[in-house]
Amino acid sequence: MTVLWVLLIRLFTELPRSITAVGWAELPENDYNRIASALLILMMTGGIVFRRKLQVRFALQQVLVAVALLMVFYTGWAVHTFHQVGMSYTGIGVVIMRYLMEILIAIFFWNFVRSERDLHRIKSIFYLPAILLIFLITFLQIATSSFENIQGVDRLIGPFGNPNTLAAFMHFFIVITIVLYVQEKGPKFWLLLLAQYVILLYTGSITMTLAHLLFLFYVGVSNRWYKSKLFYYATVVIVPMALAAFVIKLDAIQDRLAILFNTDTFELHSGSSILWRWEAWTSYISLLDSPLKWLFGLGIGTHRSIFLNGYPGSLTGIFEAPGTHNDYLAVLVDFGLLGLILFFICLRAVLRYLRSLEKVDPKVRYFRYYIYSLLFAMLSENMIDQLSMSLGILFLVSYCKTVYLKKHERSIA
């Protein structure tokens, strides 16, 4: 229970970024963020090491040992890379902390959840307070028109200081809302969904909106919406509403498109995020200038730091970018082709495991569709080492553990 409260605090360590961005106050952010992250990691580590009921199967122990050895190797390799370019090692530690948090969350909550009651505790202690606080902050910003102008468009940043980050959380929370409440389908379910969709659309994040539409496509095909009369009745209402929203937001859409490219000649502007991403990808790939680097990458934390201003010796003279904005490229830069192959092997194993659990609880498929949508979003964003991914792992592991227990009970019966 204490870990859940600390995780809730960790979620809102991003809050100062929002308050500062909309001009409500000037507050520091990184210290809160890192202190809460470190506290959470220490608590989970202590629970795993000192509490006997927190156990890991032998097969998983072997996997974790292999992961630990790889992290040690890639940390040493990153130190070598940063030493060559004269950079601070701080960036390595920050990224290691993010990956470590995800690994510990998976181990901790797999052991923590021992019945559906524990899943209900997670929902009541973490999910509901988190979503209500996000609603409070974001709808207050909407009511006070406290938006941030990003690339010529006013966009909602919520409690996270970045529209894309807020959109990633909304995409995640919508999926969790569907998993937790879809069987009830009462007023709470529809109100939660409506509020979250309003926030998602206000963020103006094209990538996460498209990712969520991909998720809905999989859900619709799986549930055979095309055979439901209700689907076509709803279409009569939703399509006119969507067209009306398009007309109301037409000026903002045109402004956004005009910044991305010349709407007459379709040439990309120098300030276009599309062109910027292409230049970033080119700059990161240029770092892989030897077969050894292509095979093993440059070391953990490189993609987050080497082109980021603020680190001694960073290569911002060549290019400035807070990450690759492409997770596949991020894995390639940090871990090389070896790491990218291992990533896809692990991904395939997770998807196969989810399919096996779907036979016990069909709702598990929503997590599989969520992963598909993330794989799309990862083409233009960095998602793997973000807090939204940590929360996704928390609910994925917790829910799968309850389904695993059901499967185990059936096999015994």
From TrEMBL:
Cellular component terms per the entry's GO annotation: membrane
Xref: Pfam families: Wzy_C
Secretion signal, residue range per the UniProt entry: none
Organism domain of life: Bacteria
Protein's cellular compartments: Membrane
Bilayer-spanning residue ranges: 35-51, 63-83, 89-113, 125-144, 164-182, 189-218, 230-248, 328-351, 371-397
Domain O-antigen ligase-related, chain residue ranges per copy: 193-344
InterPro entries: O-antigen_ligase-rel_domated (IPR007016), WaaL-like (IPR051533)
Keywords: Membrane, Transmembrane, Transmembrane helix
Membrane-topology annotation of the record: Multi-pass membrane protein
Name this protein carries in UniProt: O-antigen ligase-related domain-containing protein
Organism annotation: Dawidia soli
